[in-house]
Prior knowledge:
With 224 residues, the protein is an alpha+beta fold. 33% of the residues lie in helices and 28% in strands.
Amino acid sequence: MSDNLNQNEPVDSLRRRLLAGAAASTLLPWAAPANAAAELEGVELAETVTAYGHKLVLNGAAVRKRGYFKADVTALYLPEKRTTPDAIYKLDGVRRIQLNILREFTSSTITRIFLSDFKQSATDDEFKKLIGPIGQIGAAYSNVKRVSKGDVVNLDWVPGQGWMATHNGKALTGDGGGVMAIKDELAYQIYLRMYIGQAAPEELRNGLLGLTRLPKAGSRDSDT
């Protein structure tokens, strides 16, 4: 019996305390992972995650910057590891881009950055074709209000359901309050281009493609 358990404590009180401890030990989607493989800027990244019932592996990660500021630690999770953009675009199954936020952003800033990057990564024809989905994404970002340091945003492609997103484990919603599910794979492919396409910063692209060595969790160079 653990020394932390008081044998004289009433049974009901003890049961409540044990249940609370068990609940706390169940990792929330944005909590530090138990199977951390790498660490960047103090953010621990799991070697594997389960998304929508499917196991994904960490393909790579990098710090995404906005000007002089570090915006987030971006991680790419795939069904299988791939080292080229084309191979990733052609993968079947769930794909996840995870944003581990490093500084506060308002919804208006998030939307502005997304629109700028999306337009830069799409052709003119693609952008015009995707006005509807772009509007849905913008509405979902507006409903977030703001993100803060320590928040986790997952942006997933789920076959049969579409482009799904969560903020700290809570599904993003669109204009009508329903869960955002954009059933246009081209929109998600262009979103991937923002991170691993030719227009993406080289350091970000190489990190997500697994071409850059990641500091192991707990190592001294994890914050460099």
